[in-house]
Write a structure and sequence with these properties.
There is one protein chain. The protein has a domain at 57-206. Helix content is 54%, strand content 6%. It is built from ten helices and three strands. The protein has helices at 3-9, 12-29, 42-47, 53-56, 66-84, 91-112, 118-132, 151-161, 167-185, 200-206; strands at 136-140, 144-147, 230-233. α2 (12-29) packs antiparallel against α5. It is a multi-pass membrane protein.
Length: 236
């Protein structure tokens, strides 16, 4: 199988988002654009109608380096495992999760003065995956062994060790928890209900009538593949 065919095997939402992130970073590295044209700025959005900033601030993870590669690997792995796991056959619902999470982060980001929200978005994806796979055992850099629900907090601690602000991580965890609670917890509570309903227009645009029966998804029970995210299911 050629590299292009393998690329096309990546689920559509994961493929679109990771490609956009890589292309945005490449454009900045080649000095075709600058981060100043991408960052989140409510005043420029509202007064100068620079609405693209609502999207581009989620696509730039900084210059090419360890931080960029670290974020890209986690974004790709956990976005893909969500799309091929609990969102398999539910592309519209996955897109709606992106929109819901992005909206909440944009609102919160306004108050905490964050200019790039891509890392927070990655943490949100990791959080939702970790809560939906509570029995997966993780290994982080070969140093820590823990169960999946602790992964977002381990990543936050790693961010702290690198000298980064944990506000971004906390925002991702908070938004991820809001989504998980409204989608997975509240509907199953006595008197609860489903508040998050994917609009029919999104379903019409993204949901396909049937899937390829021969398609092999990335195994969700093996979230690693890399030394800092390796894991296996308990009892497996």
């Amino acid at each position: 199988m050629s590299c292009f065919q393998e690329y096309l095997q990546i689920p559509v939402v994961t493929r679109a988002y990771t490609t956009a992130c890589v292309l945005t970073t490449a454009a900045v590295q080649l000095e075709l654009i600058t981060p100043f044209q991408l960052y989140f700025n409510p005043e420029l959005i509202l007064r100068n109608y620079q609405v693209w900033r609502l999207i581009t601030n989620f696509l730039f993870f900084g210059p090419v380096g360890f931080n960029f590669l670290f974020n890209m690997i986690f974004l790709y792995r956990y976005c893909r495992m969500l799309e091929e796991g609990s969102f398999r056959g539910r592309t519209a619902d996955f897109v709606f999760m992106f929109l819901f999470g992005g909206l909440l982060m944009t609102i919160f980001g306004t108050f905490v003065s964050l200019v790039f929200l891509g890392q927070a978005f990655t943490i949100m994806l990791v959080y939702v995956w970790s809560r939906r796979n509570p029995n997966v055992r993780m290994n982080f850099f070969g140093l820590l062994n823990f169960q999946a629900p602790f992964l977002p907090w381990v990543l936050m601690g790693f961010s702290l060790l690198l000298g980064n602000s944990i506000i971004v991580d906390l925002l991702g965890i908070a938004v991820g928890h809001v989504y998980f609670f409204l989608e997975d917890v509240f509907p199953n509570q006595p008197g609860g209900g489903r508040w998050l309903k994917t609009p029919s227009i999104i379903k019409m645009l993204f949901d396909t009538p049937e899937e390829d029966a021969n398609y092999n998804p990335l195994p969700e029970e093996r979230p690693g593949g890399f030394a800092w995210g390796e894991g296996q299911r308990l009892g497996g």
